[in-house]
Amino acid sequence: MISAPSGAGKTTLCRRVVAADKRLRESVSYTSRQPRRGERNNRDYTFVTADEFRKMASRGEFVEWAEVHGNLYGTSRKRLRDLLAKGFDVLLDIDTQGAAQFRRAFPDGVFIFILPPSREALRQRLEGRGANSKADMERRMGNAAREMKNYKNYDYVIVNDVLNDAVSGLRAIIESERLRTARVDRAWIRDNFFY
Ligand code: 5GP
């Protein structure tokens, strides 16, 4: 489970790690926001109207959902369940409000926060996103500062300065978490060594 302020470079980081790890998948979220240029339905998000989104939320179809920058975003319970049932580890890119809800539902999830290398870098990355108006940019800078205060509630923090280093850091966390004693196959150990 990954959170970061918009502009921390999280999307690129997640894509790189998912592409390099066959056991890892991203769950495609639902959102009521408009697609940006280059975004594809059901790949980047499933784009729905705010009305459809609210209906889905009232039917309990989201594990968590939140309003972020004036739009609704949610993680589909069915998509998450299907990926886990197939044996994948699932990478979720969700905001800090969603993460707090998620922590209650999945207390043994792994929570990772991505920070940009500096305030200036964050501003430049947000400015580089042509689709954001100036007002939207200012709102996102304010939200970023507020979101970053939550880093203490996460298990790990990665500063995304050099992308390759951030990719290595994230992969190391995922690999280490898979090897935790609590996650190993106890039945396999018992049947092999203690019969
Ligand atoms: P963007 O519109 O820039 O793609 O995403 C804006 C914010 O929404 C990011 O902080 C991202 O983590 C968050 N977000 C994306 N999908 C979800 C989701 O399913 N649930 C929640 N709570 N936040 C999400």
- List low-pLDDT spans: none
Secondary-structure element pattern, one letter each: EHEEEHEEHEHEHHEHH
CATH level-two architecture: 3-Layer(aba) Sandwich
CATH homologous superfamily title: P-loop containing nucleotide triphosphate hydrolases
What's the number of structural domains? 1
Number of alpha- plus pi-helical segments: 8
Overall geometry comes to globular
- What would the CATH topology be? Rossmann fold
Overall residue-averaged pLDDT value: 91
What would your notes on this structure say?
With 195 residues, the chain is α/β, with parallel strands linked by helices. The chain has one domain (2-190): Rossmann fold, CATH 3.40.50.300. It has eight helices and nine strands. It has helices at residues 10-20, 50-58, 77-85, 96-105, 119-127, 134-148, 163-178, 186-193; strands at 2-3, 24-26, 30-31, 46-47, 62-68, 71-76, 89-91, 112-115, 156-159. Strand 5 and strand 6 (71-76) form a beta hairpin. Helix 1 (10-20) crosses helix 7 (163-178) and helix 5 (119-127) runs antiparallel to helix 6. The longest helix has 16 residues, at 163-178. 27% of the residues are buried. The structure holds guanosine-5'-monophosphate. The site of guanosine-5'-monophosphate has 15 residues, from strand 5, strand 6 and helix 4.
